[in-house]
Amino acid sequence: MTLDALTQLGPEFMLLIGACIVLIVGATAASQRVQWASPVALVVVLLAILATWRLGVPEGDTSIPGLWLTPLTYYVRWITLGIGALVILANWHQPSESERGEYMAMILFSLLGVLLTASANDLVVLFFTIELVSIPTYVLIALSRQDARAAESSVKYFFLGAMSAAILAYGLSFLYGAAGTTTIQTVGSGLSVAGHVTGAPVSSTALVGWLLIFAGLAFKVAAVPLHVYVADVYEGAASPITGMLGFVPKLAGFIALIKIFAAFDWTLPQSVFWLVWIVAAVTMTVGNTLALIQRNVKRMLAYSSVAHTGYMLVALLVGPVAGEGPMRDGVAALLFYVAIYGTMNLGAFAALTAFKTGQRAVETLDDIAGLAARAPIAALGLAVCAFSLMGFPPTAGFLGKLYVFGSAFSLGESHPFHQAVIALAIIGVINSAIGAAYYLRIVSTIYVRAEDAPAAPASGRPVRWCLAVCSIAMLILFAWPSQLASQARSATVALHATPTRYHAVSEDPDAANDTSPDDFDPGH
Amino acid sequence: MFGATEYLVLGSILFALGLVGFLTRRNLIVIFLSTEVMFQGVVINAVAFARHHEHLEGQSFALFLLVIAAVEAGLALGMVVMLYRRKGTLDAEAWSLMRG
Asked: Bigger pLDDT: A53 or A325?
């Protein structure tokens, strides 16, 4: 590892150094100086974007132990830092000034975790980076406001997060045991040799590991059996940080899932396939159904976040086997969708942040009634984000859904489960229609209903800029999606280049044997 | 001496005990203690696999797991103090403002 290799991590170092400076200065400086925390954090993120742009696309660089810099890293750097800058704008005035330094530092640490998750090439590093994403979010929720509900939601999120981290780590230890290595690039070949020896496609140790990893990551992405915390956490935390919670842990969780699926080369046993299928179907349906009965907009968007996880799981299940391009490659569609979802979700929460009724933040449908009459531009921004979440043209949310379900429909007949995947995509389309009901309720409330308790503008300009950028981006990305889509497409190239199980077995079993001498299966 | 399987069984017993404790106990400190027990089960698992494969990757995994467990312990204590100052109790049932 040379200094030259370390410059490849420019954006990550920017965030790390910036976060440390903001944290230390924020904790020690006089309170009138701490209001500089938000601009400094924004500058740090912009510098990291500049560094990403200067470095260009890494070509599968493995010179740094534990990391593998691929086009996926490049894509994730762009979307994380871009949406990260918007998150900082949304949180510009958020906590009281005495805590703003720590707060901004935690946002930067969490973004750093996402960047490193995309580069992780080691199961241990992957676990560390996932925790680096999560642990600052627990602190962020507790700091975000003085409300007792913030404390409660922070504790609920933290305890369930600690449990899911233990489950994830347990799964990773089984996967390591089955493959005999912690390097993700060679886990696949390690497993294939193991499978080759026992004659089973995947050893039962690896399968146990896979199931536990999926359970642990289901918490991060808010998939169904582990979605129970979502509504309480979203309601308890302050609106602007909720916009971040919908994006950052979900992105990190899906990147980790993509890496684990790629290690198994998307050849899952039938039982595992049906498990993901059922989780995806139930996640969409439960999310949309529970969102329908909410009157609190934050809880509604929380369940909508669960439903969107279901759509993304469809794309994950399709995987890269159907071919290239977002209409075929499920992973590219997933990466595209998660960027779109992060932006529109943040936009909706930025709109809620921009208003208050009396002394409290806007939360329920009654609070936003008749908003369009008082603040037409902000209401238009919220409406654009709601239409985008619904998947209605001309917004980028429509393209996201088109790519996700298009990838499912383009699965060829040679795929053993293509009928099941198409059935799942149809369930997804029906769910999108159900989901339209509650998004339309938000839009009709702000435009049609007369106001009961007038909502007054709150907080300053940066939140409005955030809302404006999010909603305009949704319209622009509908008109010109090719740049983002082609980046998402090239991000999956490295996944195709992963040494796959079948290649390793057929081409050079001895080379793979060196890294993993034997199969471990306590059941035999 | 024991083979790897016995250690894996020990690890799974610790993990299961932790999970049961997490789901059934009401005191926040005991709930957190249960997640620590789960982490120790994982640590034993990682070391057992390292012994089986006769290399050190699993042992370094175990060391890093302890770091994460320590970080979470620090955060948990901070939260417990914050909650106790607000309500004067650590009963998990006392914290249910949000339902539905």
From this structure: A53
